[in-house]
Amino acid sequence: MFMKTRGGWCFDVLLALAVVILPALAQAQDKGCILLKTEAQVEETTTDAQGKAGKKLVPAEKIVPGSEVIYTVSATNVCDQPAEAVVIDNPVPTHMAYVADTAIGPGTEVTFSIDGGFNYDKPDTLRVANPDGTQRVATAADYTHIRWVMRNALKPGAKAFARFRAVLE
């Protein structure tokens, strides 16, 4: 949920609400076989016992404009047969801007939409109309949805993930 604060917008992200905020959709030969879970996390800097700095992902609870959130969608095949042609479609959340080149998913092909999820393509082929009628190559800020297409079947009990980063505007 978004709330107005004195300094601007504050975004409360509760792990339990991540699925409501970011509804990923899975398409497969048998749609009932894919269980999706979405998590919204932020990177937290840590220091180990030897004083070495590191980073870990923790649930996103409150973020302010300019904060980066890492969205992870896990897809688990809960059926007894492989799930063929698994596709995960995910909107870029409202008031968030996709961070260029951060959409990943091992064994997937990633494409993007600039029209609300109706059409998907590779970034270099997406075009946006300018007010004067000319066209320009779409930028990460123009993306409305991300699609991951799994190249291989998801075996029974297997889990795959898709991830991207977005910044609160």
Salient structural properties:
169 residues; mainly beta; 5-stranded antiparallel beta sheet; 4-stranded antiparallel beta sheet; 1 helix; 48% strand; flat; disordered N terminus
Average pLDDT, to the nearest integer? 85
Helix content: under 10%
Percentage of residues in DSSP E strands: over 45%
**Span between termini:** 14 Å
Largest sheet: 5 strands, antiparallel
- The tally of helices reads 1
Strand elements, count: 14
Give the CA-based shape.
flat
For the largest beta sheet, what order do the strands appear in spatially? Answer: 5-4-7-14-9
The helix-strand sequence is: EEHEEEEEEEEEEEE
Which secondary-structure class do the elements indicate?
Answer: mainly beta
Question: What oligomeric state is this?
Answer: single chain
Low-confidence stretches: 1-21
Radius of gyration: 18 Å
Question: What does this protein look like?
Answer:
- The chain has 169 residues and is mostly beta strands.
- The chain has a domain at 8-46 and 54-108 and 148-168.
- It has one helix at residues 18-21, and strands at residues 2-5, 8-12, 25-27, 34-47, 53-59, 62-63, 68-77, 87-91, 96-98, 108-113, 127-129, 135-137, 145-150, 159-168.
- The strands form four sheets. A five-stranded antiparallel beta sheet has the order 5-4-7-14-9, with no helix packed on it. A four-stranded antiparallel beta sheet has the order 3-8-13-10, with no helix packed on it. The chain has a three-stranded antiparallel beta sheet with strand order 1-2-6, with no helix packed on it.
